[in-house]
Amino acid sequence: MKSYYKPANYSMKNSVGYLMRICTNRLLPRMEELFRDQELTFSQWTTLVALHDGRINTAGDLAHNICHDAGSLTRLIDQMVQRGLVARGRCEDDRRVVKLALTARGRDMVEALAPRMMHFWNGLLSGFTHQEIDTLIGLLTRLVTVAEDSPRKNRLLISDIPIAKPVKAQKTMKKAS
């Protein structure tokens, strides 16, 4: 493929990096606001969601997959363990490895708050078609995969497991005449 960027066309308005950064900077405060009335922060929510499907189960993989530094992640996990949202345990095969898992309370919290996140994103994406959203997700996923450092390629664990409980259809009652 021919190079896309050239000195004549590289500017802020078409810089993928700049647009991704400004998007994150605009969205992060709004996502943090979604948890203002909850007992956890957006960073804690992200941690719980990452642990939800069980594929990420060590602090190292968690830090790598949610782009969090190890020091502050340890404090974050300590808080969630104290509050009964996350459990720590030793790996049976290698006692040096500490495994992380959601507790039932942590899983319930993820499933209860997932509709809040879905509502947020559905509102934000309401001007896009489903095809455009699928394309956006596909392109961002590809970009993340390409940007992944080659020695750590196998550590990127992007889950496709739904995090909300399915909504049961409500039965309609016939009115008595």
Q: Would you give an account of this structure?
A:
The structure is a single chain. The protein has helices at 16-33, 42-51, 59-66, 70-82, 104-124, 130-147, and strands spanning 86-90, 98-102. A hairpin with a 7-residue loop joins strand 1 (86-90) and strand 2. The protein has a domain at 39-155: Winged helix-like DNA-binding domain superfamily/Winged helix DNA-binding domain (Arc Repressor Mutant, subunit A, Orthogonal Bundle), CATH 1.10.10.10. Helix content is 50%, strand content 6%. Mean pLDDT is 87; it is low at 169-177. It has a two-stranded antiparallel sheet. It has 177 residues and is mainly alpha-helical. The N and C termini lie far apart (71 Å). It contains 6 helices and 2 strands; from the N terminus they run H-H-H-H-E-E-H-H.
Keywords:
single chain; about 180 residues; mainly alpha; Arc Repressor Mutant, subunit A; two-stranded antiparallel sheet; about 5% strand; disordered C terminus
Q: How would you sum up the major sheet?
A: 2 strands, antiparallel
The total count of helices amounts to 6
CATH top level assignment of the domain at 39-155 = Mainly Alpha
Q: Largest sheet, order of strands side by side?
A: 1-2
The total beta strand count reads: 2
CATH topology of the domain at 39-155: Arc Repressor Mutant, subunit A
Rounded to the nearest angstrom, the distance between the terminal CA atoms is: 71 Å
Relative helix content: 40-55%
Structural class: mainly alpha
Low-confidence stretches: 169-177
The H/E string reads: HHHHEEHH
CATH architectural group of the domain at 39-155: Orthogonal Bundle
Which geometry do the CA atoms define?
globular
CATH superfamily of the domain at 39-155: Winged helix-like DNA-binding domain superfamily/Winged helix DNA-binding domain
Average pLDDT works out at 87
Percent of residues in beta strands? 5-15%
Radius of gyration: 20 Å
